[in-house]
Amino acid sequence: VIGVHEYSIVSELITLVEAEARRRGAEKVHRVVVKLGARSGVERTLFTTAFETFRERTICDGASLELELTSGAELLLQRVEIEVADV
Amino acid sequence: MCKECGCGDRELVSVELGVRILTRNERVARHNREHFAQAGVTAINLMGSPGSGKTAVLEALAKTFMGRRTIAAVSGDLATDNDAQRLRAAGIPSNAITTGEACHLDADMVHRALHDLPWSTSDYFFIENVGNLVCPAIYDLGQAANVVALSVTEGVDKPIKYPVMFRAAELVLLTKCDLLPYLPEISVRAVFDSLAQVMPEPRMISLSAKTGEGMQRLEDWLETKRAAQRPR
């Protein structure tokens, strides 16, 4: 059972990215940057695996995940790089 | 950019967000916390390994309170409502939250469970979390305090092996202390020392649900917590 919460956290993450992309009319997400603290309770390998599994068939399909590791307890969606139509 | 055929250039935009990933859970937890505060109910998130004695502590607590205080509870497990049945048999109105695959309770599961239970007339509401020393620690449920049950048979170094859980705890219950005579290698002092390495303010009560040892101290701690939470 250990580690399953990484999956539910990634699904929350993708929901947040989808909402942001929709708000800005983006069709593609290139990069998702997450700030992940050593004391956050989230294991980074499992988190990455969960992201690679869950991004399929979402707006994050093909997006890369970048982790900014800290020593604190942060668990933040720090930044997204999205592709928008140049108006 | 060409509007006729839709062949406009694409632009790569970087958006700074800095938003907490568990923000939705935290919003529901705040909502639960408001419910508890308005009803004057002290909510406790009781965590610990499977088999650490969480249900037995609640059964014993119902006896200790002897009708002076009322308890309601929900208990989370992957399957079965065995714990809820045990709690009801001990006179504690309670429901099971069966999580299926999930290794923890989240604020939404607790919120839904509140709708089917007469929790608001009780003094204490216990959320007996899924037995697990990892995942439940990072989900706020709206509780007033986190309490972790750790049984003497789990060994003295669990706190340093699972620091996230014990760091989040306000109180640790060292359960099954009636077994200590059979466990010469386990010392209460050593468990406390290992807790002190991870808990900012280490606080531990040695207890036995079987003999009642430590139950009065648990009641006193809960009452202090309750008094601190009540509106002035």
Q: What does this molecule look like?
A:
The complex is a heterodimer of chains A (87) and B (232). By secondary structure, chain A is an alpha+beta fold. Chain A has 2 helices and 3 strands, in the order αβαββ. A 3-stranded mixed beta sheet of chain A has the order 2-1-3, with helices on one face. In chain A, strand 1 (28-37), helix 2 (44-54) and strand 2 form a beta-alpha-beta unit. The longest helix of chain A is centred in the first third of the chain and has 19 residues, at 5-23. The mean pLDDT of chain A is 91. With 232 residues, chain B is α/β, with parallel strands linked by helices. Chain B has 8 helices and 8 strands, in the order E-H-E-H-E-H-E-H-E-E-H-H-E-H-E-H. Chain B has helices spanning 23-39, 54-65, 82-89, 107-114, 158-161, 163-167, 188-196, 215-229, and strands at 10-20, 42-48, 71-77, 94-98, 124-128, 145-151, 171-175, 204-206. Chain B has a 7-stranded parallel beta sheet, with helices on both faces. The longest helix of chain B is centred in the N-terminal third of the chain and has 17 residues, at 23-39. The A-B interface holds A 1-5, 8-9, 12-13, 15-16, 20, 24, 26, 28, 30, 34-35, 39-42, 75-87 and B 1, 8-25, 78, 101-104, 106, 132, 134-135, 137-139, 163-164, 167. Strand 3 of chain A pairs antiparallel with strand 1 of chain B, so a sheet runs across the interface.
